[in-house]
């Protein structure tokens, strides 16, 4: 009887995984979210462009830099140089994980198209709903996320 229960639990787990949205499945154990197929951080979006252009913009292969176990892409040499000089300023907070999830102690991949700059820092969100919740009172999320981040970080691969 027990092997049958184990099989049903395994099957249910597989069905649940298949039903989850792709972004949830993209959650990784990396300190910075990296596409496991391309090695690109934040899906190849230029982290500096969020600040300079005010929009999510894909970077180019000819303007790449490596750091934090990821390949980062940029629109131009100036953006790449700015990032190299100040990755702590331009890199997404919490490695690109959703701050609402981090505040709850869970590493959920942020979507590079769902973002917000608050306090001169870039935050990526799993969904528009989470971004709206965050925007309504950023400090209500940032405080708990800052406290939880070291604990969550210890669960992620170095």
Give the structure's gist in a few sentences.
The protein has helices at residues 2-19, 22-25, 49-52, 77-85, 87-90, 99-103, 128-136, 138-154; strands at residues 60-67, 70-74, 111-118, 121-125. It has 158 residues and is α+β, with helices and mostly antiparallel strands. The strands form two sheets. A two-stranded antiparallel ribbon has the order 1-2. A two-stranded antiparallel sheet has the order 3-4.
Topology:
Elements: H1 2-19, H2 22-25, H3 49-52, E1 60-67, E2 70-74, H4 77-85, H5 87-90, H6 99-103, E3 111-118, E4 121-125, H7 128-136, H8 138-154
Antiparallel strand pairs: 1-2, 3-4
How would you sum up the global shape?
globular
Quantity of strands, as a count: 4
Largest sheet: 2 strands, antiparallel
**Which H/E pattern describes the elements?**
HHHEEHHHEEHH
What is the tally of helical segments? Answer: 8
Radius of gyration: 17 Å
Low-confidence blocks of residues: 4-29
Kindly state the percentage of residues in helix.
40-55%
Strand proportion: 15-25%
- Overall pLDDT metric: 84
């Amino acid at each position: 009887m027990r092997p049958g229960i184990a099989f049903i639990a395994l099957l249910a787990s597989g069905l649940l995984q298949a039903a989850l949205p792709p972004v949830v499945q993209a959650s990784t154990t990396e300190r910075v979210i990296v596409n496991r197929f391309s090695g690109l951080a934040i899906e190849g979006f230029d982290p500096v462009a969020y600040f300079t252009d005010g929009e999510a913009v894909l970077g180019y292969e000819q303007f790449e830099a490596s750091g934090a176990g990821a390949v980062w892409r940029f629109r131009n040499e100036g953006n790449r140089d700015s990032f190299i000089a100040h990755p702590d300023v331009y890199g997404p907070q919490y490695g690109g994980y959703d701050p609402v999830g981090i505040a709850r102690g869970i590493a959920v991949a942020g979507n590079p198209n769902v973002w917000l700059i608050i306090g001169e820092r870039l935050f990526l969100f799993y969904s528009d709903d989470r971004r709206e919740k965050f925007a309504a009172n950023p400090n209500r999320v940032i405080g708990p996320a800052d406290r939880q981040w070291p604990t969550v970080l210890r669960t992620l691969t170095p």
